[in-house]
Amino acid sequence: MDGIANVVTVLGDRITNNVVGTFANMTAEKWIRLIIIVGAYALLRPYIIKLGGKAQMKKHEEESAEALRGTISPNELRGQKAMVRLPGEDSDSEDDEAQNGESSAADWGKKARKRQRMVIKKLIEAEEDKLRESKEEEEDKDIEEFLLKD
């Protein structure tokens, strides 16, 4: 145990002597140089990290592209994309024609078709609500007839 304690005290003494000696012997020129280096590091560090992140992302994308090259289907090679439908979403004849027929790189009018689909859904829901309310009113009238007859 004396050997370990002796090593620890020697290391402690050497570290304190070196640190104190370094800062005690520094001139104004060395202090300015140290401040410039630390300040430059503090200012440039975020940009260096972003640059490294971009390089890492690019490398990751290349690796994932290499992994996917072997799994490309013939339809993807021809330029057709698989249509993904969400549960509960109605199919449109326009979308089916686009999937079965020609397919372009840019899906022209896709947002407009979605907007039109939403407008039609809202109109149908409004009409169903009106029918439901009118049916409820008719049922209320039928009940009133039975209540008034007695």
From TrEMBL:
<feature type="region of interest" description="Disordered">
    <location>
        <begin position="129"/>
        <end position="150"/>
    </location>
</feature>
<dbReference type="InterPro" id="IPR011431">
    <property type="entry name" value="Trafficking_Pga2"/>
</dbReference>
<feature type="transmembrane region" description="Helical">
    <location>
        <begin position="31"/>
        <end position="49"/>
    </location>
</feature>
<feature type="compositionally biased region" description="Acidic residues">
    <location>
        <begin position="89"/>
        <end position="99"/>
    </location>
</feature>
<keyword id="KW-0812">Transmembrane</keyword>
<keyword id="KW-0472">Membrane</keyword>
<feature type="region of interest" description="Disordered">
    <location>
        <begin position="60"/>
        <end position="114"/>
    </location>
</feature>
<keyword id="KW-1133">Transmembrane helix</keyword>
<protein>
    <submittedName>
        <fullName>Protein trafficking Pga2</fullName>
    </submittedName>
</protein>
<dbReference type="GO" id="GO:0015031">
    <property type="term" value="P:protein transport"/>
</dbReference>
<dbReference type="Pfam" id="PF07543">
    <property type="entry name" value="PGA2"/>
</dbReference>
